[in-house]
Specification:
Length: 400
Amino acid sequence: LLSVLCLGDCQLHTSCGIQKCTTDFVSFTSHLNAALEDFDLEFCKALRAYSVCTYRNSKVCRGNLVYHSAVLGISDLMTQRNCTKDGPTSSTNPEMTHDPCNYSGHIEAREHQQGEKTPPPTYLFCGLFGDPHLRTFKDHFQTCKVEGAWPLIDNKYLSVQVTNVPVVPGSSATATNKITIIFKSYQDCTDQKVYQAMTDDLPAAFVDGTTSGGDGNTRNLHIVEKVSGKYIEMRARYIGTTVYIHQLGHYLTLAIRMPQELVMAYEESQDLQLCVNGCPSSERIDQSGHLPLPVMGKLLPRGAVSHPRSGYTLETATTKCHEKMLVKDIYFYSCVFDLLTTGDANFTAAAHSALQDVEALHPTKEHWHIFPRSGDDGVGRDSKFFVSLGLMCLIHVAYL
């Protein structure tokens, strides 16, 4: 076959473009297996595409012997394989479908190789904000202490680590003051890039001073500063991943969307990922969703702790959070919880911002809002997206 198509001499006749036609044909057929049922179908599609390409070059290749040999070879092969002249053709831009630095291109390449339509990729969302509250890739919602450095994500492509510090002296409440992200080197798309943010230091560049990875023209990985010192976005097209980081008050929030198949590309030793498996039970404040509640609607008990009271009652905290969030979902109740715990109104903005990030990045609109389960008012829906009645008020005696 290669001798018929004159691959060996094509490089000597680059002016007429026959080499490109031949290279594309080889790309279309190199993965085909003659033992498979669809071999003839796919081979004929590739031959027709090859024929179309040679026709487009017929004028500039008029006196080129390699070109005429290819035309004769195509005709012979179509006769041998009983290919019709009319019919579907392989993509005329195989280099586009095989772009290794475009995640959506991976899917198209897979479709081309398999000869059939594959389902669109599934994207997952994870977010961390506030005291801190964690929404995992499985849409589970937890409230944890996790003081110190913890991995949110650690897989073949990406590592994200957060550091949480105590918010109020004498309380187990913590919040995030440092985020470190490592985009691992990937083929020719990007070298390893490290990003680090800390309270009052939210740079619009990686630690090496660059703002992108890979070819500067394609921007396979790049940072966009949305609000100076307060909000940045990172987009990695080669792994189909988007990251948002905000500073609200003295603490940081993070939201990320990533393809499911990449999220799950990790080793057994990398199983301690909060976004994948949630917080360890020993670090969870909500204890599987159940929180002991104080007397409703009253000030926090005097003398219960060594730190000052937040200054909010359940009623005033609810009113404050309702100014930003009209829907009483888990983000609303997280806001109430954080106000009662810390007295810091910036946590209201953090909860509201976290919900906006969900609406921007979460792929399924029906799952944007997570509602606490209630046995009384019937607002409970699909239990896998809910937390128990204890989180409905989000107040834990241990925080007082």
